[in-house]
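Collaborator request, handled under Task 6.
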Amino acid sequence: MRPQSRQQLKFQALLAERAGFMRFNGTDTERALWRCLAGKRLGVAFRRQVVVDRFVVDFLAPSVKLVVEVDGGYHARRVVADARRTRVLERLGYRVLRLDAELVRRQLPLAVEAIRNAL
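Structure tokens returned to the collaborator:
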């Protein structure tokens, strides 16, 4: 493995800082979904706001390499960027499940069922 440059290390530190901030300042939908995922409620451990490569993902089940993203209104303007991000994560061996924030907000049990099915 090649040693990281100072710039790469700085970028990783910034990502980790951002992930920590996002962990404690999540959206309402992320907090609601986290209450359903925390503590291995679906049989696997999830982590939230985790750095994977050069991205901060909303939720990660590392043991099964499943990334769950909650996409709100902001993501409507980022369709191309989100698709690129998904491709990078898939190349790294992750499966990516994108859930619309409105689904999580209005029909949380259906969102949880979608995650259960992806597991």
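The cover message to the collaborator said: "Strands lie at 47-52, 55-61, 66-71, 95-100. The chain has one domain: 6-118. Please let us know whether this matches your experimental observations."
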